[in-house]
Structure formats: C-alpha cells, structure tokens
Amino acid sequence: MFADISLVTREEKNIITIPAEAVMQSGDELYVYVAEGDTAKKVTVTTGISNDELTEITSGINEGDSVIVSGKGVYFRKEQQNQNCQ
Q1: Sequence-ordered list of residues with C-beta below 8 angstroms from that of 48, at least 6 positions apart, any chain
Q2: Tell me: the pLDDT tens digits for 64-83?
C-alpha cells in the first residue's frame, strides 16, 4: 500500500509568483524576460521560496508584468550572440 503525502511547511500571502521555469540563471544572477511591446527586456530578480512549479519573486518585477515563459531561450541565445560581437 502506498500514499502520496503533501506537507505544507510555509505559506505566504500577497506575493508575486511566476512559473519556476521562467527564471534563468547566469553565474550568481537570476533573471527573467519581461515583454515590453514587441520586445523582451532582461530583468534581474531576487527570489524567495519556490517549489517545482512556482517561484516567489521578491524584487525585480511588479504585479501585472508579462513574464515570458515559453521561447525565452531564443532571447538568451540572441543576447549571447550580441555579447560575442562586442
């Protein structure tokens, strides 16, 4: 016999959370891409608690910002290419 157990160790209210997969890392920097019109802006963020699905954002973005989740790797590769050309 088996059972799935879920244990809540901490609960927060009135926080900003985004899909965990939206957060990228380069060295010590954590960042996301935010849609601004038809472009994407790289924004450094500070994270709080997280699980497999969601990550708390404690600074860097605001409620209502459009965080890019799908296709963000395209922006990352383009950014890397632009840095290599400088």
Answers
A1: 12, 15, 55, 56, 57, 58
A2: 999 999 875 565 555 555 55
List, in order, residues 6 or more apart from 39 with CB less than 8 Å away: none
What are 30's two structure tokens? 């954590």
Q: Which residues contact 70 (CB under 8 A, 6 or more apart)?
A: none
Q: Coil, strand, or helix at residue 45? A: coil
DSSP state of 52: S
pTM of the model: 0.73
Phi and psi (nearest 5°) for 81? -65, -40
Q: Is 13 helix (H, G, I), strand (E, B) or coil?
A: coil
Rg (CA), the chain: 16
Q: What's the gap between Cα 48 and its chain centre?
A: 11
Q: What angle do CA 49, 50, 52 make, to 5 degrees?
A: 165
